[in-house]
Amino acid sequence: MTTFAEFDLEPKVIQAITELGFEEATPIQSQSIPIALQGKDMIGQAQTGTGKTAAFGIPLINKISRNDEKIRALIMAPTRELAIQVAEEIEKLSRFKGLRTLPIYGGQDIVRQIRALKKKPQIIIGTPGRLLDHINRKTIKLEDVNTVVLDEADEMLDMGFMEDIQSILKQVPDERQTMLFSATMPPNIKRLAEQFLKDPEHVSVIPKQVSAPLIDQA
Q1: How confident is the model at residue 214 (pLDDT cuts 50, 70, 90)?
Q2: For 53-99, what is each residue's pLDDT tens digit?
Q3: Which residues contact 51 (CB under 8 A, 6 or more apart)?
């Protein structure tokens, strides 16, 4: 059992974790957080519901300064629902540090998003299509990003976002930390990792029991 106190995190980050009622780290968190805190690239294989948002969220919150006025972290997610969910969790984990997060997704008024971007968020959580829209409009600039997270990468590629992701990552400085999380590791994910990650550490937390135990399969 690993407790969050063992990770050498800032007191304000520990305070948020404690307030959320988290006591011990899940397997993906206990393996990923130490790697992420060292600034290394990482491939995490884990299902939804294993606590992976905190696995990448805690280290990136830990390293961003409240007084920073630049976009320092970019998290890409396949759907609007996931982008909102990740943004909410990052907000809770960073509340005592006072960091500014902003979800960016299609289906929401772009003018409203442009207004919100003027408040200088340090963490952007977005869907690839809408992110690219903002990049093309020059309302989002990624030259100061030092951490990129690809969440549910297999789902993003299944939805046809490969080219969008490649275009977005080319806008981010080469000197950055990239973390990719995916439930499965098909060949196209491996290709994406080879193209954009540097000597990544691999973390895999895949339950042996995949199907429901009471279901007969024929």
Answers
A1: low
A2: 999 999 999 999 999 999 999 999 999 999 999 999 999 999 999 99
A3: 25, 26, 28, 29
